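Protein modeling request. Please complete all fields; requests missing the sequence field cannot be processed.
Requester role: graduate student
Desired output: 3D structure, token encoding
Chains: 1
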Amino acid sequence: MSFNSSLIKFAYKITPKTIVYLVVNSYLKGIVKLIEYDVNFNERKILSKVHLEGEEGEIEVCLEDFALIKSGDHYKFVIQQVESNRPWLNKALSRFILGQEIKIPNTQVQLVQDLFSFKFSDSEDQQE
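Delivered output (128 residues):
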């Protein structure tokens, strides 16, 4: 594991959630309020509960099953599963997020690999 990924995981563990809520909610004020979140680096899962302005109740979103795909001389990050507790949001997420490839700068590939515990092998293009 790289020093940077160890530092990020350590910072995540020691940062009080109240600070994260304060920063995120002040930045997104009037749009959405972050109520709860959890990032599980080892299981490659991000859970969040938010209150979207104008919506009743909380919206839950779960991003999971991330993949790092080698494409030529660079890597792409792909979210292979996303779910929410709203049918309309599931459709939007599946259309605009699910399977979309996000190019990872070559300088950040090692960090992404370490953070989400991707195992690289010479014989496979898709990393698990």
